[in-house]
Amino acid sequence: MDSLAGIDVASALEELRDKDALRRLLAGDHTLWQEDPSEVADRLGWLPVREEMRARLAELESFAAEVTADGLAHVVLLGMGGSSLFPEVLSRTFGGTRCDLRVLDTTDPAPIARVADELDLDRCLFVAASKSGTTIETRTQLDHFWELTGGDGRRFTVITDPGSELAAWGEDNGARRVWENRPDIGGRYSALSLFGLVPGALLGVDLVQLLDRSLAAHLDDGVRLAAVLGASVRAGRDKLTLLLPNKVASFGLWLEQLVAESTGKHGTGLVPVVGEPVGAAAVYGDDRLFVALGEAIELGDEPVLSLPFVDSLDIGEQVVRWEVAIALTGVLLGINPFDQPDVATAKAATAKVLTGDSHGDTVEEPIGELLATVGAGDHVCIQAFIDPGDDDLLAGLERTRLSIRDDLRVATTLGIGPRFLHSTGQLHKGGPPSGVYLQVVTDDAVDVPIPGRPYTFLALKQAQAAGDLFTLRERGLRAARVSLQELLAFGARA
Questions:
Q1: Fold of the domain built from segment(s) 49-205
Q2: 103-120 burial: b if 16+ Cβ within 10 Å, else e
Q3: Of the candidates 141, 137, 134, 142, which has an alpha carbon nearest to the alpha carbon of residue 160?
Q4: Which of 24, 159, 295, 445 is a plausible cystine mate for 32, CB 3.0–4.6 Å?
Q5: Is 220 exposed, middle or buried (0-12, 13-18, 19+ CB in 10 A)?
Q6: What is the pLDDT of residues 301-313, one digit of tens each?
């Protein structure tokens, strides 16, 4: 049963209705958010794309069948953020009945090297996915595997916007297929477009059911969810804590980006808290909103919203509900939910490190000094530039995260770099200044060269970490690089 005492949902809902928000959203009226149409009018293609994709399912199915008929059994997705997160959700949730899928959204050299060590490259289809076509992680991975496979275009396919550099690359190099997505869809809203559904078809997901449930979604449910989210921020409860069933726990990866990158700007926003186990009432401050899928949860006096959820294919409906909700939350917060004004700064800082114009700040500082600054209403984010396949290390960092929560009674998040730069990075730099950022970077034993570049994947990862830390500190935020050993020891205390 929902318990939202102290959050004025009714006033927020009335405001959305007074503004005729849902009708104007569906009509593509950019003035709902701002007078300037930039990065609004050309970002609403996610609304009609569901019907378009429903009409193209036979085409997607034919492509997937052709791939398997040619003996390709492994799909390696080269992508970041909106181009990779929903395929990751589909893979973790449904597995692969047709092909298995490995998402490579990292510059850490270890998982890049493992592809060739663990898979038969002759049986791999490499899917390069990037809206802009210039994403550095995707392009460097593409160059690496193109060289490693001897430049066999039949083992590569591309998903991108029309006319992008990546589209031209695919045409020039004889890629098996160049998929051109609607250009009026931002990355984090692209789940039910070609970016999500081409990998879904290759996995063998029931896309008919997935899309039919998305088309049957009641959009008014998204309006009410927007009212709850917007009213919660206004009430000071901006830590959106997501409680998801185990079978769809990975859905939090996609939600995290949608929420953080869409709302975290101009000093406001929702801080998505994903994967944090439920604790005793004593470990929570008064800044939380809990949203649970599929079950009624009671957490004492904490505000809890329960959303209906039947089975894994309901993800299709949930995508639409949350897309509508976050778009309309932007109306209540007075922001444009479709832009990302603070992302480019870290990219520029990374480029300076790579060219030698800046070395960044890589001196480790004691963890206690930074945690001593944490107060009520803050949140602590561990930013780990590590091998995402190191399960033992991830488990250790999760223990540290819970120790910090229990000791300091604040929300905690764990971001794996550089993935989080394309997911929560916008929120970190542009959202509420309540974050405390602990960055850790591993010294890798493995390195992989990048064809045509004067740096390796290890150097790129380290530059991304240094560039992000520099940007956070330049903005006056509490951020430091800390010792991995010290951070793990903090979580291992009895």
A1: Rossmann fold (3.40.50)
A2: bbbbbbbbbbbebeeeee
A3: 134
A4: 24
A5: exposed
A6: 999 999 999 999 9
| Residues 259, 263: Cα–Cα separation, whole Å | 6
How far apart are the C-alpha atoms of 236 and 299, rounded to whole Å? 18
Handedness of CA 187, 189, 192, 196 (dihedral sign): positive
pLDDT profile of the chain (494 residues), mean per 10: 85 98 98 97 97 98 98 98 97 97 97 98 98 97 98 97 98 98 97 98 98 98 98 98 97 98 98 96 95 90 95 98 98 98 91 82 89 97 97 97 97 98 97 98 93 96 96 97 95 75
Q: What is the pLDDT of residue 444?
A: 87
| Element of type H or E holding 307 | strand 304-307
pLDDT of the residue at 1: 44
pLDDT in tens, 332-354: 999 999 999 999 898 999 999 99
Pick 9-32+218-333's CATH classification: 3.40.50.10490, 2.40.110.10, 3.80.10.10, 3.10.310.40: 3.40.50.10490
Please, are residues 161 and 131 in contact by the beta-carbon 8 Å criterion? yes
**Would you tell me how many other CB atoms lie within 10 Å of the CB of residue 348?**
11
Question: Within a 10 A sphere around the Cβ of 99, how many other Cβ atoms?
Answer: 22
Calculate the CA 11 to chain-centre distance: 30
**Angstrom distance (rounded) from CA 256 to CA 222:** 17
- The residue among 200, 190, 191 whose CA lies nearest residue 93 is 200
Number of helices and strands in the chain (H, E): 19, 13
- Global pTM reads 0.97
- pLDDT tens digit sequence for 32-41: 999 999 999 9
Compute the distance between CA of residue 350 and CA of residue 68 in angstroms, rounded to an integer.
39
How far is the C-alpha of 411 from the C-alpha of 239, rounded, in Å? 7
pLDDT at 20 (0 to 100) = 98
Q: Which two tokens stand for residue 477?
A: 């935020």
Domain formed by 343-491, architecture:
3-Layer(aba) Sandwich (3.40)
The whole-angstrom separation of Cα 447 and Cα 41 is 43
Q: Which residue has the tokens 């298995």?
A: 100
Residues belonging to the chain: 494
Q: How far from 403 is each of 288, 337, 393, 396, 414, CA to CA, in Å?
A: 18, 33, 15, 11, 13
